[in-house]
Amino acid sequence: MIAALVGAAIVSAPALGWAEVPAPATAPATATPTPAGPTPAPAPKPGPTPQPAPPPKPAPDGSKPGPITDDDLAKAQREDVRPWAKDVTPEQQRQALVLFTEANDLLRDALFVRAVEKYREALRYWRHPAIYYNLALALVNLDQPVEMDAALDEAMRYGEAPLDADKLDRAKGYKLLVAKQIATVEYSVDVAGAKVTFDGTEVLVGPGTWEARVRAGDHAVAASAEGYLPVQFTQKLGGGETTRLRLRLYTDAEVTRYRRRFATWLPWTVTGVGVAIAGVGALLHASALSGFDAYDAAIAECARTDPSGGCSSPSPDITDRRRTAESRQLLGISGYALGGAAIAAGVTMLVLNRPSSYRINPGAEAVPAPAPVAVTPVIGDGVLGLAASGRF
Predict the structure, then answer these.
(1) Alpha carbon distances (Å) from 65 to 55, 58, 61, 72, 264
(2) Rounded to the nearest 10 degrees, how much is the dihedral formed by the CA atoms of 332, 338, 340, 346?
(3) What is the rounded distance in angstroms from the CA atom of residue 282 to the CA atom of residue 265?
(4) Phi, psi of 224 (to 5 degrees)
(5) Cβ(34)–Cβ(21) under 8 Å?
(6) pLDDT, tens only, 94-118
(7) Which of 359, 390, 260, 282 is CA-nearest to residue 328?
(8) What is the pTM (predicted TM-score) of this model?
């Protein structure tokens, strides 16, 4: 959007209010000539022209000053209060103005790529705010918001003195518009030797922090280091936003976890309960055998006193002994079966409960612990069982 607005403004040069660069009628007073040449309408007109050291004042006697020498320029430069001209030699100013003039001609002809090259070449001789201003005008037509933003910063560094109030206001306006297309990022890494890349370009070797202004949108970020697992992700950066991110690297051991199908104690508990139930069954079986022996003895005693030679009418006590022995025998056999099944289940669970490894996402929440399981033996009158409750 900025490129369209500025492009339209460049076509309408009077609306932008850019100063014309007229051809001088007579030789200029300074040793470095002001860029000259007609401006074809309606071609764009660049911003202000960097001015070299000021010309000498007229002599006190009213006579015209003589030709300016290099000594005059050097003296004027030493006395120059303009910070943007400090340590810039007269020859460097001449070179910069020649390139600046060529760049302006290219900008008027809408040859923006070549104009940018010339402006940057001129800046190698003289980092004048006016050159940065015109560079920003060329960059906006190339849709390079980050580079344009940096050029505008340099153009506005010294206020309106090297430009003028109108150009400074326009620079501030462009700055506000281009800020919506730029995001600020700050990535840090603590691992020594870790390499951080941004859109495939290495920007940082850790430990340290990399901060930059980048174009808003989706960007690929990656970090890697020897002995650590690489990190790769795509991050969406919003215009005008600042994103700070600490890139954490993990070793393979740090992201490896182990889990089991059941709680560690559960298979052992089931096995133990099975052994206990089988033990109870064995006790009941032994008690049943003892009861049957007592029953047989009671029947033999009854048969000795019975005229029929047998125990035709056993007493209720003898009958109860048989029933009790039969019940205990049934419970004992059930205890064997249930205890054996529990033991088999416990052993199977021990085999299945061997730990298995998996990797965690460092940014994810921890895996919740398994829900507890309750196992309770049930023993009652004629009932022998195992009650378990829980959630897997």
Answers:
(1) 10, 6, 10, 11, 102
(2) -150
(3) 26
(4) -150, 155
(5) yes
(6) 999 999 999 999 989 888 999 999 9
(7) 282
(8) 0.49
